[in-house]
Amino acid sequence: MRKIKLSLIVTVLNEEKYIGKLIDSIAIQSRMPDEIVIVDGGSTDNTLKKIGEKSLVYKNRLNIKLIEKKGNRSIGRNEAIKIAKGDIILSTDSGCTLDKNWVENIIKPFRKKNVDIVAGYYRGAYKNIFQKSLIPYVLVMEDKIGNEFLPSTRSMAFKKTVWKKIGGFDESLSHNEDYAFALKLKKLKFIIKFKKDAIAYWLPRKNLIDSFVMFFRFALGDIEAGILRSKVIFIFLRYAFALYLFLLNIIMRSFPFVVFTVLLLFFYVLWSIYKNYKYVNSYKAFLYLPLLQFASDLAVLSGASVGLVKKINLK
């Protein structure tokens, strides 16, 4: 395989707590990217300072280019790729760290000239049981990897020519731009290879409020991108049925009917534990898994609803 030029792109916005860890993980790669293009979207914390400090620490090892460009992640990613000089664009997110062989492993499939995109894998880097419980609600777990694993900007590589052909990331999207990007790649039948050993470690949210906001943004982003997932439809149907039962309880005031409703709620809680307990394996999961189930449900309902209202108003 000839020596191809690699450009690693990252977008940041108020990432002072995480960007240093990412740069540290890049500095120990078994195969170094030729350049790292970081685009800041207008940070007001110490993100730029942290990047500057790390640039000095690794000045003999890493070629870091820092660009300031206000806008969403799509704008930032497109700006980074425009500036990048590499044949292959590597992408990760500022809330991640990289396995030491990530670069080396994610570029291997490009030995075959017909490969256009490589989807690397990602795992949760949890520090407590709450974060461990959150991971199966956000990431694709290893036992659920299908034949069509779509690339995510957490762990992804693609030819720069591919980005040019599809017109880059959709700059009208502020949230799920990478999912929309991946769906477009699939629709246009570019060759995507999955590389399980190209691992990025995702740093989970630390509390329920931050998790709710994340789920809300995911749901809003899907609607903005014109994506309606089947699981979102099922959530709306579940809660429409729950509302129907609630109204019937008020009208009927029947003890057996109340018991039936409570049993349904109980089984829903049990289901939320059953489906993900194997990934957590802790008694604390009996609290966190149902809590995250209801939080994610409500965030999806509200995020999707806001997205739908925005689309209607725009029309």
Helices and strands, with pairings:
Blueprint: E1 6-12, H1 19-27, E2 35-40, H2 47-57, E3 64-68, H3 73-83, E4 88-91, E5 96-98, H4 102-106, E6 117-124, H5 129-138, E7 156-159, H6 160-166, H7 177-187, E8 192-202, H8 208-224, H9 230-252, H10 255-280, H11 285-314
Parallel strand pairs: 1-2, 1-4, 2-3, 6-8
Antiparallel strand pairs: 4-7, 5-8, 6-7
Helix pairs in contact: 1-2, 5-10, 5-11, 8-11, 10-11
Average pLDDT, to the nearest integer?
94
Uncertain regions spanning at least 5 consecutive residues: none
Sheet having the most strands:
8 strands, mixed
Q: Within the largest sheet, what's the order of strands?
A: 3-2-1-4-7-6-8-5
Q: Please write the string of helix (H) and strand (E) elements.
A: EHEHEHEEHEHEHHEHHHH
According to DSSP, the number of beta strands is 8
Going by helix content, strand content and strand pairing, the class is alpha/beta
What would you say this structure looks like, in words?
- The chain is of the alpha/beta class and 315 residues long.
- It has 11 helices and 8 strands.
- Strands 3-2-1-4-7-6-8-5 form an 8-stranded mixed sheet, sandwiched between helices.
- Helix 5 (129-138) crosses helix 10, helix 5 packs across helix 11 and helix 8 (208-224) runs parallel beside helix 11.
- It is elongated.
- The chain starts with 5 loop residues before the first strand and ends with a helix.
